[in-house]
Amino acid sequence: MSNHTAAARPPVYPFAAIVGQEEMKLALILNAIEPRIGGALIMGHRGTGKSTAVRALADILPPIAKVKGCIYGCDPVCDTEGCDACLIRRDGRRRLSAERSPIPIVELPLGATEDRVCGSFDIERALCAGTVAFEPGLLARANRGFLYIDEVNLLEDHLVDLLLDVAASGRNIVEREGISVSHPARFVLVGSGNPEEGDLRPQLLDRFGLHAKIVTITDIDARVQIVRRRERFERDPLAFLAEIEPGQASLRRRLARARKLIAVATVDDALLARVGEVCLMLDVESHRGELTLMRSAKALAAFEGRQSATSEDVRRVAILALRHRLRRGAGGEVDAGIRITQVLDKVFPRAELKTNTAGHA
Amino acid sequence: MRRTGEAVEPLSPTSAFPFAAVAGMQRVKEALLLLAVDPGLRGVLVASGPGTAKSLLGRAFPSLFPGERPPFVELPLGVTEDLLLGGVDLRRTLLTGRRHVAGGILARADTGILHVDGINLLDRAFICHLDGALTAGVVRLEREGFSLEFPSDFILIGTYDPEEGEMGASLVDLVGLHAREPEPLSREEHIELLSRFVAFDRDPHGFILQYAPEMALVRTRIAEARRRLPKVAVAAEDRHRLSLASLRLGVQGHRADLFAVQAARARAALMGHARLQEEDLEVAMRLVIIPRAAISQEDRLDVQPEQQSSQPAPRRANDVENVPVQPAEGSVPEALLALSRENLRKNADVRRGRSPADTTAGNRGRYVRAVARKPTAGKIAIDATLRAAAPFQMLRRPAPDGQPQPLKLAPSDLRFKQFKQKAGILIIFVVDASGSMALNRMSQAKGALIHLLQKAYLHRDKVALIAFRGESADVLLPPSRSVELATRALEILPVGGGTPLAAGLQAALDLARRDQYSQNRRKLLVLFTDGRANVAQGSGTGQIWHELRIVSAALQHERVTCLIIDTTHAVVSTGQTERLAELLGGRHFHLPRRQAGALCDMVTAMAETVRHGGA
Questions:
Q1: A195: which chain B residues are within 8 Å (Cβ-Cβ)?
Q2: Which of A167, A285, B120, B298 has the smallest C-beta neighbourhood within 10 Å, fewest atoms?
């Protein structure tokens, strides 16, 4: 089987050159800093740069260390998670030989069959060589990285269920005719789509950590800028990339620093209590809401170079973390943002916020 | 680059008829010329009536290219996923005994032109694959044990007849140009075209030669335009005007702005302008922005002002004219706006946004893909089974003497056909919006409906919404799965006028029949009314119950399960809705006694019965 491509992959439009759509960019960045946020769902108008942003992420993520030669890209230091081969290789050693590798961003094409998503037993080899061989699928490749599904609302339900299950448990288990294989599959699930093409089942909605909504930009100057940048990129991609590089480099630095900082980032008890209060007042259905809100606030603090989250951080991520977790009431989804803002205003009065942020500045 | 198969293809009017010999269709020709100047426009969607030679023009498109002609690949509507995306190459695999994979239609169209005739009829699942290839420029295969990527960078030419249904919005957005030829060919043009067909049939070679000089000129013109293209100056003001126009016309996303600048440049290059002229901008408006505006406006149902008057409801087609389409000052010529409205009117009945294909394991519907897992009722997919078995034939056959051997199949090779069929049911809500529906009850009915819509969504059901008032019924929402669209349609539903109950049921019947023909789903009709029918469809009011009887019988004949929800209080009931329920063979309830939740459970239970084939 030959692979036709690889070498001739065209350059990707850079993240730092994406105009506007701050909500979407923030959702992706927070997940890149703290994968436990649980992924992002990006829904909105067609032609607003959803897939451009996800594909652009690859170039600003810092590389990670992985066990040399491991197809699942296991972490050489962590000994609680890993594939069977790495667990055997480890055998008492603290650290396995490592290599640096980019964080994988794996795209799940529509029409993918389940065997390629989860992996399958290679029957050809079983027949020829008499050994049972597991051929890993997309989930294996996405371990410790991102799994992206464009038009997630059009994906078959059973596949979406399966992906969300694996994303939540962090392990992929494949069983067939008495043979069972399991391997680590810890990835950030990012889905995007246009709600007009069909909605996503409400049960699936709240299993995505963050929910970003994007709309067509209405500022004329910004729109003209989008066109000009795109034209310049298409005319001479390399020159354009060079021009945007300082912005990209700065993003890369901030992300790398934030990924270190997140390990020690904290939310103080008083703020935690208020996060709980916000969720209670909004009648958020599960604890996932509080947890996501807290983790997102910490990730935002880390991105800003701080160790502890502030109420301003909570405010900035609250809509992303909660809008899809409110009970579907008479009001519907339209005013979810307004309802959240109202509650935030009650729990974190504006006057107090000023002094709060001033103290941290 | 031409595929060898094409060289021996016999000459036929559809394969070699010269571009320049097609009469009329100026707008379409203009779009195709622009695309030849700048293939970065990604393609043209051609909308025109039957017999206008649109697919002929599409097939003649490669002849516009100066120099080497790009490969030209047809995408037939009856395609399967394997053929489109690629898969095991049966011949080579059987020959060599190891698996060979070959790209499908999308891979073969790479660096060339993909032509789809009747593109609006293409299955939703395949449209998604087209979308994917157009955005990524590659086809990724993650199927049946192999993981591959093929380059798939092509120009798309799709032709369709808008009378047969509109295009999905996603493809309209991804393809640069959209040429609508609203007028059928004039009598003279038609006769001219026919006589040229006859001349072509008599002597194809001579006919082509006759047009050869003209075609050579066209190619030279395009080659020159391509040279001029990078030098065409675009003033900042022109960019502003185009962006402002797509903003004001409510176009979704930012591709329109980009394609509009591109199209204006291509047109300027073609005309030899050094900088964009007014006409270049107008062409960009017509071919890029307005077609997208028409589609985006349709998504927006919140444009109809609430009317409380007792005037008869205006037809929906006219409502769309009231869309507050604000022209950008001085940048949108009046004539173009008129064109935009004309588009809206055209699209008003046949709406976009077909929902994703439901694939179920039943054995009805259309074969779209093969699966390894045995469905409850499956037919064997011979093609896919052969492909699955092919790699193992060498291993399984013991005879080395080279004698032809029967194919050796193992149980694990078996593949089963997966058919595309609508899994859910279709729930048709018919709402009485007449003046007698006092406002409070109407709002209760609306509340209950929104509840029901959300429930219906959970079951992958489709919903349609019909309202009747004044003298007629309007389909506010054709079968759709978007709760968002349905809720919006409902929220703006005005009340007032007479009660043309029979017209409402007739509209439901038409919808049910159309659905029966195209999707064959089970159907549930939920009627909200106070039962005071007072407007007949044809003859006088005396005929009302006669009409109701006929349409009810027809609905029963179509096996539509009916549920009548009477919005009056049981105490003041006139017994009319009960009588209607009897005619329809359906169940009957009063609304006010029930909470929205209870009503919801009831309809859900009914839907469940319908789903499982009861009732």
A1: 482, 484
A2: A285
